[in-house]
């Protein structure tokens, strides 16, 4: 390949560029770049370590999601891409996403894909929690005196990005509902983005979570409906 004329003039004949010795200045720059890269990799690894994601979920990315399985999946991917593109704005406004739809339609996959992309691209401290697990932990602190969940609860309340998976799967008692409200209300007030997945639609949320929690969830999220087939079954049939 020919050098552009300006470079050819500067460095004499074509190709000499390759043999230019690296000045101490550029060596320093390279070292710094390498150091920054390794620091970035270490940061990504540590964010993944603390993300609460299982081994399987670390593979839930946009690249591994097939958008053409049905129209709603394709549309959902478009909206996820737009969300990632506008992340700085979304973060500032505390905007999240609410994936709803039937079993195996890809809700958890897409919610986790957003997390994985933001950890890799922007090194966002993100946390994945399933709501049933969260409720179990809340109940335990109620039943087991002395059990202290404060640190974990603070992490859930304050994560830069929180994924709450399987919202509304069960109708919690008033006491547990109140604890859920504390988390959701905190994230709403502090404008911290939260991504929810749920088998139930927004219209059923008030009955399941109480009106005050449901109203905040709906206010801070863009709803994305997935109405395709159960992908677990599709994958089984394809594999057979
Ligand atoms: N369009 C897709 N392309 C590739 N894999 C998919 C797709 N949709 C779902 N999957 C895979 O199918 C499995 C089920 O998807 P996922 O767990 O996201 O479903 P879900 O909607 O959260 O279901 P549930 O309501 O049971 O929690 C996962 O292993 C996921 O990676
Ligand atoms: Mg799920």
Provide an overview of this structure.
This is DNA replication protein. Pfam families: IstB_IS21. With 240 residues, the protein is an alpha/beta fold. It contains eleven helices and five strands, in the order ααααβαβααβαβααβα. Helix 7 crosses helix 8. The longest helix is centred in the N-terminal third of the chain and has 26 residues, at 24-49. It is globular, with a radius of gyration of 23 Å. Adenosine-5'-triphosphate (ATP) binds at residues 60, 65-66, 69, 73, 103-109, 197, 199, 231-232. Residues 107-108, 165-166, 197 line the site of magnesium ion (MG).
Biggest sheet strand order reads 2-3-4-1-5
Q: What is the assigned CATH homologous superfamily?
A: P-loop containing nucleotide triphosphate hydrolases
- What is the name of the CATH class? Alpha Beta
Report how far the terminal alpha carbons are from each other: 51 Å
Topology readout:
Elements: H1 5-10, H2 24-49, H3 71-85, H4 87-93, E1 96-101, H5 107-122, E2 126-130, H6 131-143, H7 150-158, E3 161-167, H8 174-189, E4 194-198, H9 205-209, H10 211-220, E5 221-226, H11 231-239
Parallel strand pairs: 1-4, 1-5, 2-3, 3-4
Helix pairs in contact: 3-5, 7-8, 8-10
The protein binds adenosine-5'-triphosphate and magnesium ion.
Organism: Rubrobacter radiotolerans
InterPro entries: AAA+_ATPase (IPR003593), IstB_ATP-bd (IPR002611), P-loop_NTPase (IPR027417)
Pfam families: IstB_IS21
